[in-house]
């Protein structure tokens, strides 16, 4: 008897939750697709150069190659960077290599 009450109570709730999850998922997915397109088109022109080992950006930061580690951004790899002003070495997301500034000199 108790079970029956609980189940019939829960069914309408589950339906409601599913509806909300579905609608919010669609919105999130759409937003993500838009973001990815933007970042890809923004970086695709530059990434060819900036992610090559030995690339030096406008702040005199040298790309010393991919570390193979995951970056803070999803799908981004960490790159080893070296400041040619002071020699400080650090890691940066692939998407940040071209505009990265030295943590010590900046
Ligand atoms: Zn520096």
Task: Describe what this molecule looks like in 3D.
- By secondary structure, this protein is α+β, with helices and mostly antiparallel strands.
- The protein has a domain at 49-99.
- Helices cover 46% and strands 21% of the residues.
- It is built from one helix and three strands.
- It has one helix at residues 2-50; strands at residues 61-70, 77-83, 89-93.
- The protein has a three-stranded antiparallel sheet with strand order 1-2-3, with no helix packed on it.
- It is rod-shaped and about 75 Å long.
- The termini are far apart.
- Residues 36-46 have low confidence and may be disordered.
- Bound molecules: zinc ion.
- Zinc ion binds at residues 83, 85-86, 88, 102, 104-105.
SSE order and pairing:
Elements: H1 2-50, E1 61-70, E2 77-83, E3 89-93
This protein binds zinc ion.
Low-confidence stretches: 36-46
- Kindly state the number of beta strands: 3
Mean pLDDT: 77
Order of helices and strands: HEEE
Helix content class? 40-55%
DSSP helix count?
A: 1
For the CA atoms, what is the radius of gyration? 23 Å
Q: In one word, what is the shape?
A: rod-shaped
Unique ligands: zinc ion
User: How much of the sequence is in beta strands?
Assistant: 15-25%
- End-to-end gap: 70 Å
Largest sheet: 3 strands, antiparallel
Widest β-sheet, arrangement of strands: 1-2-3
Look at the helices and sheets and give the structural class: alpha+beta
Quick structural gist:
The chain has 1 helix and 3 strands, in the order αβββ.
Main traits of this protein?
alpha+beta
């Amino acid at each position: 008897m108790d079970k029956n009450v609980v189940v019939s109570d829960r069914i309408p709730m589950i339906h409601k939750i599913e509806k909300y999850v579905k609608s919010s998922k669609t919105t999130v997915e759409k937003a993500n697709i838009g973001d990815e397109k933007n970042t890809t088109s923004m970086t695709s022109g530059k990434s060819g150069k900036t992610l090559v080992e030995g690339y030096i950006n406008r702040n005199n930061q040298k790309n010393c190659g991919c570390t193979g580690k995951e970056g803070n951004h999803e799908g981004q790899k960490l790159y080893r960077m070296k400041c040619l002003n002071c020699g400080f070495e650090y890691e940066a997301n692939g998407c940040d290599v071209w505009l990265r500034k030295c943590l010590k000199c900046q």
